[in-house]
Design brief:
By secondary structure, the protein is an all-beta fold. The protein has 1 helix and 20 strands. The protein is elongated. The protein starts with a strand and ends in a 10-residue tail after the last strand.
Length: 172
């Protein structure tokens, strides 16, 4: 009575995970830290492989999105000296990396007039196999039934989300 259950989390980790039913008594509260997403399941982790035909790290279901600034992808023709090229509207090197691989930047040139590229050899992407958390997951999870007694509360920190189905009723 009067106690607070504080939920914290970061990067879809299991920092706060409650899997059984809980009752928040009158005067008690669940307090969610700032910028924490609370739902009924934590995010999942996937190992992604590089697909050289598309330029995307994927496991067939989940794709690792390109960093902003990349606008397209081009595979090298046989005999080309360069690896896969990511097209960009950048006018200067933004120091981009994809899947943990730092990309080389090259401004417009006689080989690709009118546009800039980021590039790396295919083998460097294929040797990484990044493991990533899916952004649709939660930072903290409440998968059991949560009963808020009269006079109790749920307090969300700034930028936090509580994405559970909430049923309002009378306790039996």
């Amino acid at each position: 009575n009067g106690a607070a259950l504080q939920l914290a989390g970061a990067d879809e980790s299991a920092e706060s995970e409650v899997t059984s039913a809980i009752t928040v008594q009158s005067g008690g509260s669940i307090v969610v830290d700032a910028n924490v997403d609370v739902g009924s399941a934590l995010g999942s982790t996937h190992t992604l492989d590089y697909d050289s035909s598309t330029g995307i790290y994927t496991d067939g279901v989940v794709n690792l999105p390109w960093p902003s600034g990349l606008t397209g992808y081009s595979t090298p023709s046989p005999g080309d000296w360069w690896g896969p090229a990511f097209l960009t509207d950048d006018v200067a090197d933004q120091g981009l990396s994809y899947g943990g691989v730092s990309l080389n930047f090259e401004g417009p040139s006689m080989w690709h007039p009118g546009f800039a590229i980021y590039w790396k050899d295919t083998g460097e992407f294929e040797s990484v196999h990044p493991t990533t958390s899916v952004s649709t997951g939660m930072d903290a999870a409440l998968s059991g039934t949560v009963l808020f007694s009269s006079g109790s509360k749920l307090v969300l920190g700034a930028g936090s989300n509580y994405t559970r189905n909430i049923t309002v009723g009378t306790a039996s």
